[in-house]
Automatic annotation (TrEMBL):
GO cellular component, one term: plasma membrane
One GO term of the biological process aspect: cellular response to lipid
Alphabetized GO MF terms: G protein-coupled receptor activity; olfactory receptor activity
Name of this chain's protein: G-protein coupled receptors family 1 profile domain-containing protein
Domain of life the protein comes from: Eukaryota
Function of the protein: Putative odorant or sperm cell receptor.
Primary location: membrane
Transmembrane segments: 27-51, 63-89, 142-165, 198-224, 244-263
């Protein structure tokens, strides 16, 4: 209770949230979570190993895929400690500076993933629109440069987030809405002026995810235009088949971003009540 009633410029710890009202069954929820993380880590690590050890896969398309897998590994490792701590051990406390560090890595890897998805869209555009110059346009050094640019952009854009939060006083509450640290979630706990934080957060969304999504759509619009210009139906299908998996990945990425934004904009109490009601009804069916 002392943690809840005190006032501090910076709280020593924050409290993560699992699923309120389902604390008794969180250990069971941790089982599918553990399996999901295990599949994600093993799957992406396998992709990295296969691409690295198979020389014929050292092509632009697969190098970009390995970059995407590496960001997925980084993102999984960024959220893994606190998610399992909450659901498996029921340990909700997280140190303030560790929270800011986790937040930085989550947003950085997300920005990197967005940039790599854009690079993969450009890769497919070059492969379909100008296949004869594919290896000339996308050389190994240029691919590495694009990957390095994605990483630098992510780091540079996200470094101000914890710095801007660190300058704020926190005297409202210490309970976060998630089992990991997320910038809007931490920001709403501050009792100081957060106008700069809001403006910078919106600028980040527009300058990174907004720009990336716009150019990704443009790339696939040009790809579609090129495909429709192919005379044979077989040629059109063959060209589109090389893009299906990437289009699916892009859709998943941006749909998840939209869903997360909607969760933050809606009343979280209503969402939690609905989730609690579903679990409660299932529990009644089993008993």
């Amino acid at each position: 209770m002392e943690l809840m009633n005190s006032s501090w410029f910076q709280p020593p710890t924050l409290l993560l949230t699992g699923i309120p009202g389902l604390e008794a069954v969180q250990i069971w929820i941790s089982i599918p979570l553990c399996i999901t993380y295990l599949i994600a880590l093993l799957g992406n690590s396998t992709i990295l190993f296969i691409i690295k050890t198979t020389s014929r896969l050292h092509e632009p398309q697969y190098i970009f895929l390995s970059m995407l897998a590496a960001t997925h590994v980084g993102l999984s490792l960024s959220t893994l400690p606190t998610v399992l701590s909450v659901f498996l051990l029921n340990h909700r406390e997280i140190e303030f500076y560790f929270c800011l560090t986790q937040m930085f890595f989550i947003h950085t890897f997300s920005s990197m993933e967005s940039a790599i998805l854009l690079a993969m869209a450009f890769d497919r555009f070059v492969a379909i629109h100008n296949p004869l110059h594919y290896t000339v346009v996308l050389t190994y050094s240029q691919i590495m440069g694009m990957g390095l640019a994605a990483m630098i952009r992510g780091v540079v854009l996200m470094v101000p987030l914890p710095i801007l939060l660190k300058r704020l006083p926190f005297c409202k509450d210490v309970i976060l809405s998630h089992c990991y640290c997320y910038h809007p979630d931490v920001m709403k706990l501050a009792c100081g002026p957060i106008t700069v934080n809001i403006i910078y957060g919106l600028s980040l969304v527009l300058c990174s995810f907004g720009v990336d999504s716009m150019f990704t759509v443009i790339s696939y619009s040009l790809i579609l235009k090129t495909v429709l210009g192919i005379a044979s139906k077989d040629g059109q299908l063959k060209a589109l088949n090389t893009c299906v998996s990437h289009i699916f990945t892009v859709c998943i990425f941006y749909v998840l971003l939209i869903v997360l934004a909607l969760i933050h904009s809606l009343k979280t109490k209503q969402i939690r009540f609905a989730v609690h009601k579903i679990f409660k009804s299932r529990k009644n069916l089993l008993t």
